[in-house]
Design goal:
Its main location: membrane. This is TVP38/TMEM64 family membrane protein. It is a multi-pass membrane protein. By secondary structure, this protein is mostly helical. Helix content is 75%, strand content 0%.
Length: 191
C-alpha cells in the first residue's frame, strides 16, 4: 500500500494540469488498495491546498459513491456483506438524519461504504442518492484536507477530545422523537 501511495503521489505531483483528474481517480480506485479516505484527503491538502483539495476530494468521494451505487446493483453479495456490517453498526435503525450521516462520515473508523449503503437504502433513486452523497462528503473532505496535518499529528489525548466532540455533535443532531407501535409497547414475554 505504501509503495502504491508513494507512486501515486509522485505521479500526481508530476502530471501538471491533469493532476486534479488523477487525484479524483485516486479517490475512485483507493478502495481496491485499501487506502483510507482520510489518507487520500490528507494528500489532497498537501498537493492542492485546503480549498482546491477539498473541492477535488468532494468530487472524488461523490464519484466513489456513484460507482458504489452501480456495484451494489451488479453484485448482490457485496450488498449482503455490507448489510451485515451496517446492521451491526446501526443496530437496525433507519432514522438517522443527514447531519448525523455527515458526522458519521467524518469518523475515520466507520467504513465509507456502510454509510453509502445506508444512503442507498434511504434514497428513492440515483439522483437523490447522489445529492445525499455529495452533501455527506463535504464535511470529511474539508475537515481532513484543512486539518489533515493537525489530525494526523494529534497526541492520544487530542484524538480522544476530537472523537468526543464528534460524538457530542452526533447526539445534538439526533431526532428528538421516537415512535413505537402499540404491539411493541404492550409486548408480552413468552415463557
Amino acid at each position: 500500500m505504501n509503495e502504491f501511495l508513494d507512486r501515486s503521489l509522485l505521479f500526481i505531483e508530476q502530471s501538471g494540469w491533469l493532476a486534479p483528474l488523477f487525484f479524483i481517480l485516486l479517490h475512485v480506485f483507493r478502495q481496491a488498495f485499501f487506502i483510507p479516505v482520510l489518507i487520500v484527503c490528507l494528500i489532497g491538502g498537501y498537493l492542492f491546498g485546503t480549498l482546491y483539495g477539498s473541492i477535488y476530494s468532494i468530487i472524488g468521494l461523490t464519484a466513489v459513491s456513484v460507482v458504489f451505487y452501480g456495484l451494489v446493483r451488479i453484485a448482490p453479495g457485496l450488498k449482503r456483506k455490507l448489510t451485515n456490517i451496517k446492521q451491526h453498526f446501526f443496530k437496525g435503525r433507519q432514522d438517522w438524519n443527514l447531519p448525523q450521516m455527515m458526522i458519521i462520515r467524518m469518523m475515520p473508523l466507520v467504513h465509507f461504504h456502510v454509510v453509502s449503503l445506508y444512503l442507498i437504502e434511504t434514497s428513492k433513486g440515483l439522483k437523490e442518492y447522489t445529492k445525499k452523497s455529495f452533501l455527506v462528503s463535504i464535511p470529511p473532505a474539508i475537515l481532513y484536507t484543512a486539518f489533515g496535518d493537525m489530525i494526523h499529528e494529534l497526541p492520544l489525548a487530542g484524538t480522544i477530545v476530537f472523537a468526543g466532540f464528534l460524538l457530542l455533535l452526533f447526539m445534538l443532531f439526533r431526532k428528538k422523537q421516537s415512535s413505537m407501535s402499540w404491539e411493541e409497547f404492550f409486548q408480552t414475554k413468552k415463557p
